[in-house]
Amino acid sequence: MTTAPARWERCLARPRAQLLPMPGASDRLGVFPDGDRRRRPLARLDKAQTQQAISEGRLETDGDTYRQTEAGRLAVKRERSGFNNQHRVLALREIIDRTGRVSRVFANTRESPVGRWAHFLTPAQINAAERFIADYHRSTLAPSVTRNWSLDAQVRAPGRGEGAETGALGRIEATKRIMRSLDSLGRRDGEIVTAALIREDSLAALGRFYAGNPRRGRQVVASALDRLVAVTSLRQPPGCA
């Protein structure tokens, strides 16, 4: 029976990650981003784990240098491929077409920016997030979505597109929905939603910046998306419950 790759193996498979002795503990190893031992290691190995990995052919050493073997890299690659194929979550999703109308389709929830967080978000949070992302990509705000919070901020002038079905009017309406959502969310929650859904910041980065603790990223995202659910539900058109 093949042993699944350990956490340190998955971390070591990342670009530029290196396995090096821990500072002040020569009998322990750490996986360091960019080989920088001043940074916090992504994973740690004790002496027994190191010897086991070498005996199983997943790690090779040359003095103080440790490298993941080709067999180890392939094991991680196979695991990732299997995870992607086995963890597709198909669900009915509401999408906004080019005219701003809402329709329901089956989609893989893990293919979106919020798919990586689907295991701790509620269906309502995911739906609100997907609506926001769809509007953003349809709007005139891409590639950057920011909000001018000053009192003398100018409102974008309407376009000259003619006909309700034109692409120009669809972009303007999507932009209005985005800006109304940001206004309703307020500065902090608006910044969190933008950082999480558009810039796709990590949970650690969101927790560190908005809560002073990288481990509170989940709470930061969930709280902001709860507010997004609340403000978007007030404008939800009939038949889109």
Which labels suit this protein?
241 residues; alpha+beta; 7 strands; 16% strand; elongated; disordered C terminus
Task: Describe what you observe in this structure.
By secondary structure, this protein is an alpha+beta fold. Helix content is 44%, strand content 16%. The protein contains seven helices and seven strands. The chain has helices at 7-12, 47-55, 70-86, 123-138, 167-197, 203-211, 217-233, and strands at 18-22, 25-32, 43-45, 59-62, 65-68, 90-96, 102-108. The strands form three sheets. Strands 1-2-3 form a three-stranded antiparallel sheet. A two-stranded antiparallel sheet has the order 4-5. Strand 1 and strand 2 (25-32) form a beta hairpin. Helix 5 runs antiparallel to helix 7 (217-233) and helix 6 (203-211) packs across helix 7 (217-233). The protein is elongated and about 65 Å long. Residues 144-165 and 237-241 have low confidence and may be disordered.
